[in-house]
Design a protein that fits this description.
By secondary structure, the protein is of the alpha/beta class. β20 and β21 form a beta hairpin. Strands 1, 2, 3, 4, 8, 9, 11 and 12 form an 8-stranded mixed beta sheet that branches. It has a 5-stranded parallel beta sheet with strand order 15-16-17-14-18, sandwiched between helices. About 3% of the residues have low confidence. The protein contains 39 helices and 21 strands. The chain has 5 domains: 230 residues, 3-Layer(aba) Sandwich (Rossmann fold); 197 residues, P-loop containing nucleotide triphosphate hydrolases (Rossmann fold); 79 residues, no CATH class; 124 residues; 83 residues, Serine Threonine Protein Phosphatase 5, Tetratricopeptide repeat (Alpha Horseshoe). The protein starts with a strand and ends with a helix.
Length: 969
């Protein structure tokens, strides 16, 4: 469903003089719309409709409307050819057989024919482009006769015509349109809208005057803008921007529309640029003063005539939302840097290959951003990244982002990186110790006169409001600086309030309110205007929509299909077209990403709006919890890629908001990856949210702490893991008791991590006590009892009690086979531990037999490429070497190396380690020269991949020196 359909017509009227260009220009327009804008044919024919009869023209338009209505698509009708006006509001598009003085039977009456089809068809927006003479009467007729039907059907329309009441010359309208498509407009947004073409056409086509009509959710105006979803083609002039083709592009469009460049704004921009020598710059101020807009202007410096920078000044930009996670930020930054930094793609590919199977040291931000940037440090190319809205993400995610930003702007290997932060003042972010090195640029609050000027500047573009109504708003702004009442702050609403005021007709304003108006009042009035336009019957639907948007939070993050599913769950089955109507009808309350496409996403524009939105939701009968539950239902039922991506960042928040902490915990477990560092960040990001919503002593909060501590240990921070597990154990004993399964499990994890630090005596002593406790609480046949017995036997073997460990492993395998089955991963793992203990005890031959039997089963059950299978093959090669069978060991290592290169890649640490072992075997077999050559090649690769100071690199260097000495060198 959805999409963008186009019907382009080139028509010569036989009764009038030949134009000669209609076919060429119609073909050019159709091909340009198709190739650049993704428009598809609205009828069965791929290409323009050339020289139709009047009947064929009418039939084609009808078929186009029917197709668009069936698919809930946006429809574009383009006409190039003969047109004529016969009287007021009577304008005809002429077919090949139309007479010079037509009527409704012999030509296409633009106003009436479109009106009739709007009455029968619900579209996802309509765009009409007419390159013909005397089009003004068609525009006047459309302005008077289409809105009523549009309000009931599509709701959004753009009409752009070539001329007023005079002639259109030589196709200048369409020629200029095509040339503008090819060159773009530097002062416009991500995509070119019909309104954007008015000035270029008027400038080039001096003998005619193009006119534009926009209808958006009840507002009819000859103006800039309209629905950004009704775009024609991407604006090629924006190709050099950091956010081109990225989700943030639509948000940047919204931020930079209707700019008022005051002296204070220009000075602040200059301050940011002049502070470029600082690796970290913070743009700080209260909400609504224009921080995000300032940063958007750095991305699009052509909008400010005094900025001495190019679009390349900002390399990448992230506008954070409540759903932002570190991994999502990393992926988005990597995509932007790949497109804009030469060599970054190759550096990122190398980092991914190295870390693909490394489950400990590095997280996704390291792999996708930090390491590739470090590899490019010697290029001398400065990289400047914008990160705006640190106040939006969850508290845990915010701290992780602060840490990575501090690393980017402090580490010596990243001295070429600059970060510009947008920070909301008063939340303590600017005082974070990790950001102490930040250079601060404070954004001044706008004065009332500037805000009033913004409102006044919009008056000329809003024909529905008269001067008296605008004067009333301006008087309010000049009387006092508007402030918000809301969650925690009483701060300037600034430009945000001004933007909303420009969208509120004076007719809906209660004059008694104007003496003490604040942002929440303006939000209520803006929603009241939307309800008035849509009709009181739609108020409940708008309430549901607001409830979902408020639950989704700030920023364009909620995919439109999830919004659709959430609305259906709340009992409002709404077609996509109507859903977009209502969303567009909320104006600046809503921000959109990739508008008018299948990948569109929406959200609340600013955090300062949330308090007012919640109040209005309740007034309309919707509680915020309803919005959270609706979104949960939608993402559980929707398996699309965008819904899944949204769920990764937002589902836990929605579950917690509904009190479903167990579902939130289960969802987090599904998000874990093979990389322990990613899992550490995952649990760390959400722990503060669990604590805040469910309480510190809630069982699911305690379970999150357990997962976090163990992820820390697996990522290499074992001492911190032990400390956190000890603290957790004390809290579990206090809350759940010392015999609760969660308490016992935490004690088991603590003992295991102690063993990894070499504190074997204490680990064994703790595990001995735990075996007794598990037997009493769980019973002898419980899987956890078997697991703790296995841990005890393993750490006995590490301590040197090999015979006792072997006996225990043999009994455990017997019990596991009976209880879990011989194919269970736990049983297979214990068999490996038993064979390893036999080999360590000197029973190498018997151990090798058991390893070979295990390998046969692993190949059958898990496959040749499974990590446990590869581990067992490595053990076989190792103990063949230890047993003196060097030739067999070499054969095993060579076979293993071939598979590791295929599975893990040539630069993976396990692959490099196998090469080290293989080189040693060659030396021990007498091929000292061959061993030296292999060590030299290995050393070069390790220095490139791991670094000269890495412990494995140093070991190889030591081994190389040894074998060189053996050769007499």
């Amino acid at each position: 469903m959805g999409g963008r359909l186009a019907l382009v017509v080139g028509s010569e009227c036989g009764a009038l003089g030949e134009l000669g260009f209609t076919g060429e220009l119609a073909t050019g327009l159709y091909e340009s719309l198709k190739a650049a804008g993704g428009w598809r044919a609205a009828t069965g024919a791929d290409g323009p409709l050339l020289n139709p009869t009047a009947a064929q023209l009418s039939s084609a338009v009808g078929a186009a409307f029917a197709a668009a209505a069936q698919q809930q698509a946006t429809l574009l009708i383009g006409f190039i050819g003969h047109g004529t006006a016969t009287s007021a509001e009577d304008f005809f598009l002429l077919g090949q057989d139309s007479p010079s003085m037509p009527d409704s039977h012999t030509a296409f009456h633009l106003t009436q024919e479109i009106r009739e089809r709007l009455n029968r068809s619900a579209l996802d927006g309509l765009v009409v482009l007419v390159d013909a003479c005397e089009t003004e009467q068609g525009l006047f007729g459309a302005a008077r006769r289409w809105p009523e039907l549009l309000a009931r059907a599509a709701g959004r329309m753009e009409l752009l015509v070539a001329a007023g009441d005079g002639p259109a010359y030589a196709g200048c309208f369409t020629r200029t349109m095509l040339s503008t498509f090819a060159s773009g407009l530097p002062l416009r947004g991500e995509n070119l809208l019909p309104s954007d073409l008015v000035d270029p056409i008027a400038t080039v086509c001096t003998r005619q005057q193009p006119e534009h009509l926009s209808f958006t959710s009840g507002t009819v105006a000859v103006s800039e803008g309209g629905d950004p979803g009704l775009w024609l083609v991407p604006n090629i002039a924006r190709r050099r921007d950091a956010v081109t083709d990225r989700p943030a592009a639509g948000f940047v469009d919204q931020l930079t529309s209707r700019l008022l460049l005051t002296a204070a704004v220009r000075e602040t921009l200059d301050d940011v640029i002049e502070a470029g020598g600082n690796r970290l710059r913070g743009v700080i101020g209260p909400p609504g003063v224009g921080k995000s807009t300032l940063l958007a202007m750095l991305i699009r410096p052509s909008l400010v005539d005094t900025l001495p920078i190019s679009p390349e000044y900002i390399t990448a930009a992230i506008f954070l939302t409540v759903n932002s996670s570190v991994d999502a930020v990393a992926v988005e930054l990597s995509a932007q840097l790949t497109a804009r930094v030469p060599g970054f793609a190759a550096a990122a590919r190398t980092a991914r290959e190295f870390d693909e199977h490394n489950s400990t040291a590095h997280d996704v931000f390291d792999i996708e951003v930090r390491h590739p940037l470090a590899r490019l440090a010697k290029d001398g190319r400065r990289v400047t990244v914008i990160v705006d809205g640190l106040n939006h993400p969850e508290v845990g995610t915010r701290q992780l982002l602060i840490d990575v930003i501090a690393d980017l702007t402090r580490s010596d290997d990243l001295r070429h990186v600059r970060v510009i932060l947008g920070i909301r003042q008063g939340m303590g972010i600017e005082d974070a110790p990790a950001l102490a090195h930040m250079h601060r640029i404070v954004v001044s609050e706008p004065v009332a006169e500037d805000i009033a000027a913004t409102v006044e500047s919009a008056r000329d573009s809003r024909m529905v409001l008269d001067e008296r109504e605008w004067t009333a708003w301006t008087d309010v702004l000049l009387a006092e600086t508007p402030s918000t009442r809301g969650d925690s702050d009483s701060v300037t609403a600034g430009w945000l309030m001004a933007r909303l005021m420009t969208e509120i007709p004076g007719a809906v304003v209660d004059q008694a309110m104007l003496r003490d108006v604040d942002l929440d009042d303006v939000v209520a009035l803006r929603i009241g205007a939307a309800v008035q336009v849509a009709g009181e019957a739609t108020a409940a639907t708008i309430g549901a929509l607001l409830g979902v948007l408020a639950a989704a939070g700030v920023g364009p993050a909620l995919p439109i299909e999830v919004l659709d599913g959430a609305m259906a769950w709340m009992g409002h089955q709404t077609k996509f077209a109507r859903l977009r109507d209502l969303t567009v009808g909320l104006g600046s309350l809503v921000t959109r990403s990739r508008p008018g496409t299948a990948r569109e996403a929406v959200g609340v524009t600013h955090a300062a709006l949330l308090a007012g939105l919640r109040t209005e939701c309740r007034r309309l009968g919707v509680e915020l919890d309803d919005g959270h539950r609706a979104i949960i239902a939608a993402i559980e039922d929707n398996g699309t890629k965008s819904a899944t991506t949204y769920a990764r960042g937002a589902a836990v928040r929605h579950y917690l908001a509904c009190g479903s902490s167990e579902a939130a915990f289960d969802f987090l477990e599904q998000l874990q990856t093979p990389r322990a560092a990613d899992n550490r960040d995952l649990w760390s990001a959400w722990l503060p949210s669990f604590t805040a919503v469910m309480g510190a002593d809630h069982r699911d909060t305690l379970r999150v702490r357990n997962r976090l501590a163990n992820s820390r240990g697996r990522s290499g921070d074992i001492n911190t893991a032990i400390e956190e597990l000890e603290n957790l154990g004390r809290d579990l004993t206090r809350v759940l008791g010392d015999q609760h399964i969660d308490t016992l499990t935490t004690r088991l994890h603590t003992a295991d991590w102690r063993g990894h630090t070499g504190r074997l005596e204490r680990a064994v002593a703790e595990l001995e006590r735990l075996v007794i406790d598990y037997l009493r609480v769980c019973g002898a046949d419980h899987p956890w009892t078997l697991r703790v017995r296995n841990s005890l036997a393993y750490w006995r073997s590490e301590r040197g009690s090999l015979r006792r460990a072997i006996t225990e492993f043999e009994q455990i395998i017997e019990d596991q086979s009976k209880i879990l089955g011989t194919a269970d991963p736990e049983t297979l793992r214990t068999r490996h531990d038993l064979a390893r203990s036999r080999a360590m005890a000197g029973e190498i031959d018997r151990a090798l037999v058991e390893f070979e039997q295990l390998l046969t089963d692993l190949n059958r059950l898990l496959g040749r490429d499974h990590a446990q299978t590869v581990r067992t093959r490595n053990s076989i090669a190792r103990w063949l070497r230890e047993g003196g069978e060097t030739a067999r060991a070499i054969a095993e290592y060579e076979s293993l190396l071939t598979d590791q290169v295929r599975i893990f890649g040539p630069d993976h640490p396990d692959t490099l380690y196998t090469r080290n072992c293989l080189a040693a075997c060659h030396g021990e077999a007498g091929d000292i020269t061959g061993a030296i050559v292999e060590y030299e090649q290995l050393l070069a690769d390790q220095e490139r991949v791991l670094g000269a100071d890495n412990a494995h690199t140093q070991l190889t260097r030591t081994n190389l020196d040894f074998w060189r000495a053996q050769s007499g060198r």
